[in-house]
Each structure stands twice: as C-alpha cells, then as structure tokens.
Specification:
five-stranded mixed β-sheet; two-stranded antiparallel sheet; 7 strands; 19% helix
Length: 171
Amino acid sequence: MMSMNDSAPSHCAERVPNATPSIFSRNTNTSIRLTNKDVRLVTVTPLPGLLLYTDQRRITQVFNNFISNALKFTAAGSITIGYGMPENSYIRFYVTDTGTGISSENAQGIFNRFVKLDSFKQGTGLGLAISQNIVKELKGEIGVESQLSKGSTFWFTLPFYKMDAHRSIFP
C-alpha cells in the first residue's frame, strides 16, 4: 500500500508516470528512474503481497526523505530499498546506499532538526527530523547504521499485525 510519489533531486532521479510498478503499491502513478548511470537501484521484497494498514502518505514521505538523501550522497554503487520479514510484531523497512557514509559522531544527531552534514548539498536539514516524528507517531522506531566511506542504512519499523482472511478488506 506504499508508493513513491514524489521525485528525488532532479540531478539524480526523475519522476516517471506509469513506469515500472512500484515495489510497495498495488497501483502505481510514479516510479523512480535514476539519471546517474553509475548508481543501481535494487529492491528487496520478501513478501510481495504485503499490505499494511497505515498512513501511506506519511510512510511515502519517510521513504522519499531516505531515498533523496541516498541519491545526494551516492555517486556510484547502489541504493537498496526494501523491508525484512516481520519479526516480534514489527516490520523493518530500509534504504541502504554505498555512498559517503556518516561518522559515528555525526550519526548520533542526524535526526535533529536543521542538521546538514554537507552544506553544499541541497536541503534544509529537516527531512530526517520530520521522518522521525512520523515514525514515532505511527508507533515505530527509526535509526541509522553507517560507516564513513562505505555507506549508510536508514531504517524504520512499524507495528505489524497479521490479518485473518475473514478480516481482509481486499478480495
């Protein structure tokens, strides 16, 4: 039930109406096409039929923030978007890149408002702070794992409740 509706920075990606199906949505209006030929987009979807009852617009906003940052800081390599199998009543979503990475000192405050690790890159430093607020409001957790010069994984969890067939709202 999730889609990536907004575009990433124009120098890295562009909006493509009705392109390939989104990895998180039944219906697709927009997909991402990388304009940097040195960066490969990879998706990991262990449960392709997964449906979540959540605020799709807000989760899309979190993904857009993660993907936008990955595109800004990855000149070559890959960006992986996906989620893991449900564990302990939570499902973990992530965006992993092979970009510049973040030092452990900078990673500690990365979700604070107005934090920009590179003043020459586009942005206000609010995207990750907003993402943190969204995820907390949806009863999840958010974090980052990173190594300088090797890349980063930004992740968040959401509560996951398996629905019985008779409770499903879809045919």
